[in-house]
Amino acid sequence: MTDVAIKVDHLSKTFRLHTERRNSIKEIFVRGKAPGVHDFHALRDVSFEVPRGSTFGLIGHNGSGKSTLLKILAGVYRPSAGQVLVDGRVSALLELGAGFHGELTGRENVYLNGAILGLSKKQIDRSIDQIIDFAGIGEFIDSPVKVYSSGMYVRLGFSVAVTLDPEILIVDEIIAVGDEEFQRKCFDHLFELRRRGTTIVLVTHSLTLAAELCDQGIWLDHGRPRELGDVSEVINGYLLDVNAKESASRAEAEAAGSHPDGGATVAPSVPRAGSGEIRMTKVTLHDASGVETAFVTPGETCTVRVHYRSTRSLRELTFGLAFIHESGITVAGPNSMQNDRTYDVEPGEGFIDFHSAAFPLQPGAFSISTAIVDKGHTYDYSDRETELRVRADHAVREPGLTRMIGRWSAEPSAPVEGRA
């Protein structure tokens, strides 16, 4: 185990659940034994190793067994089958107030947690000022923790977990409860611990953070391991599966005549602007092969198809689109005049395509507005009637709403004398 900090070998965890409890001998005698006892398999045959000094990520949907696995690594749960070997002093942050005594002050709880971790009072004395400074809860450090807010619990708990020089740090998604400033401080410290060689096991729903921080990872699906290895490959496999399930769900819902959330598949009844001789009937998305798709992938080829119905012959029409983020920001507004393109249409139905070789929007929820105009006259304008979902197939490391296409220099250059 010299080069391996954690080894999990064919681990399984089963909980026995009761749909109805009998809390007294009288209840058992009068009503009989409680019915509905069944086993819930939280983890099934999970195996992996975490090399010393590396960062390991647990990835999966809610209820996949990630937190259960962390609690087994931290010694909170015992495995039902298999083995877990942990070589090093473990510091864990699993849930709000874990290990805190409500009647004790924050300072007293620091000493209590340090003693649980096996540290002497002198060792804690050397770190107490650093812990208090990192937590940033001021005079509340000498108040009972039962009066703390959830954010203060997180601040103190994380400060204790990371400041007492852990050999193995286990962190659940709980740090996401803190405010923006504290989250940044936490993530900066996690990267610093990683550089110092601390072994870290992390549960996070931020796949971007997992890609940046973790070396390896495991994808759990209903307690079973689906993929293990390089974290980028694990994330890619997980996202492809999530996208496929969403696409299938939407296709099934649309075939049944409703959205997955119960709404109608057709655009909502919104009063349209324009004279109405031609109307947009729907907007569809198509991939590089021309196949209609439920969502768009950043950087991939995409076609936005505007379907219309016209009641008369019309000449020199301009078609326009607006892509609007869920926050209300209009991100882009391409129109056919940008390419000196106008269209003549005849009575009946048809469509116009807007083609993007590398779709620039980042993952998120957007709406599409459409316009059909002619020299300042509006025939049809639909305001955000079409939903647009942008989904990644890999961990996105670029912040923002759109992708900035550019080129970085090959290597650093020295400034030219006499120039800024």
Keywords:
nucleotide-binding; Rossmann fold; 25% helix; 6-stranded mixed sheet; 33% strand; ATP-binding; elongated; alpha+beta; Coagulation Factor XIII, Chain A, domain 1; P-loop_NTPase; ATP binding; 420 residues
Q: How would you explain this protein's 3D organization?
A:
This is ABC transporter ATP-binding protein. Residues 250-273 are annotated as: Disordered. The protein is of the alpha+beta class. It has two domains: 4-240, P-loop containing nucleotide triphosphate hydrolases (Rossmann fold); 278-390, Distorted Sandwich (Coagulation Factor XIII, Chain A, domain 1), CATH 2.70.50.60. 25% of the residues lie in helices and 33% in strands. It is built from eight helices and 18 strands. The strands form four sheets. A six-stranded mixed β-sheet has the order 5-6-7-3-8-9, sandwiched between helices. A hairpin with a 2-residue loop joins β8 (216-221) and β9 (224-230). α3 (106-116) crosses α4 and α4 packs across α5. Residues 259-269 have low confidence and may be disordered.
